[in-house]
Amino acid sequence: MKTSNTFKITAAVLGVLTVAGVAAWIYQLMGGLGVTGMNNGTSWGLYITCFMFFVGLSAGGLIVASSASVFHVKEYKKVALPAVILSTVCICLAGMFVLIDLGGIQRIYQLLLSPNVMSPLFWDICVITLYLIINIVYLYFMVSKKADPRKVAIVSRFALPIAILVHSVTAWIFGLQIAREGWYSAIMAPIFVASALDSGLALLILALSGLKKAKVFDTDKKLIANLAGLLATCIAIDAFFVGCEVLTVAYPQAAGGAALLGEMFGGSTALFFWGEILIGLIIPFCILVFAKNRQKTGLVIISSACVVVGVFFKRVWLLFTSFIHPNIYGAPGISSGSTEAAHASGTSIWATVGAYAPTWVEIVVVVGVISLGALAFMLLARRFLAKAPKADVGDSAVDDRAATAAQTV
Amino acid sequence: MTKLGMAINLTRCIGCQTCAHACKMQNNVPTGMRWNRVITEGCDVPDGALGEYPNLYRTYLPIACQHCENPACQKVCPTGATYKDDQGRVEVDYDKCIGCRMCMAACPYNARVFNWEDPVRDPDFNYGDKSVPVRQKGVVEKCTLCKERTDRGEDPMCVACCPTRARVFGDLDDPSSEISKHLAGKKPTQLLAEKGTEPQVYYYE
pTM for the whole thing? Predict the structure, then answer.
């Protein structure tokens, strides 16, 4: 395949952004996490938001790919390969965000030397590593010449439960913390799995559309419509879980819950909460619930983009709302609670509540990591997908052959 | 078993912050951080007041690590850097801390502070007790119950320096200790008892 100019320019731009991100990360390593907007009041920020977001995005791909084998959904087999590539890239990005967020990355070997098996974070690191390995094995079996479809089928039976597990364990990092009103909830794991399904699926649809536009990999319009139908179902499940959680917090009218919902409905995180409800749930659902709309690729792409943005908003409100109101106002850890106070002296260090805004360093690092991911996806797609024979839209016989080739080549 | 803890008499506390400063000096706590603090309850400024003029009132609450018997921070630490020692104190092994800040998210009391940057001190030298380890950037720290002093059989610095003797330190498991005698017959309370973390710091009036 000839390298087009668009490809070269895009790759160059992404490469430059990645280098900028790496430079910003080195700057952060030198100065410490103080160069970010995080502080003792809001001790996790944009990095952990992106970590949750990308773990979720990674799910959709692998779940679609593995359910093709596990539940024998024949149509999905056609997109299994791009789905697994997407999933592999996203989980790598998620892992990178955890590492970037560490204040003492030079002591990371302590995870191996003295692991604490009670820690959900320790388990998350294990499950993410396992998930990454499964993704790579899956990818290997799909593209290797020696691999046969039986091996793919076996791996997919492990891949599906581990994909669910990876989101659940990520959710438990938050859901098991009795200290935080907004996190401590049994629905956290289901909500993470649901958001993972809808955002991951939406990203897969966007990626498939992008590949089609770049003439790298062709996806049948009917299949996109089918995936869009599944996406509508996942959005509905996600909305149901969010509704359950909000009602359970609101109904007792207790002080802690009221403060939390106050921030979500009309306070600091309201923009993100209502943003998710509107952009992430209502708009895409209302579009995709009609079969006629699902046939229009343009509308499907818009809805998918809405879902991805909406789920990012959800990660934001989910993480930060619980940091706003500490259980004890003005506790020692809050003394430098606001971003300004973290660098202030005199009486302003006596802040009683936390506040957070990302700094330019965090934004450049995040843009860099995402650029690296996009670049990796472009290169992997070119390497593995372009080899599959081109199929005409609507020609199912040729389509099937392409899918089989993609599966077994 | 030894279970070191503290009892704080809220009636005696005058909110002078001597304990906060004594702690900072003893433990070499850098600028912008504190392990111990006296808050004025319900106020967003130190020494504020509640009620309507002229009927004003205020109450003080000294807060540091609660050295919980069931510590949420210790459970979540992926490397075991936070641990419960044989004296019943919750301590941090700074060499094991990878700076993930999971413990900060898990502590219901927000007792923990993080070294976001290379520590800055004013005056610019290590003013703490020389037996207290100096922490580097990227690790979490908090009240150690003055581990270095209490290992030598001394009281924690906040206890030793309190001008109204509002604080009593000792072994909660030893019925003949001063702290046990102090708490006997009183109705001590624990901070956020409903969280089930079982703090070893008791408050009474």
Answer: 0.90
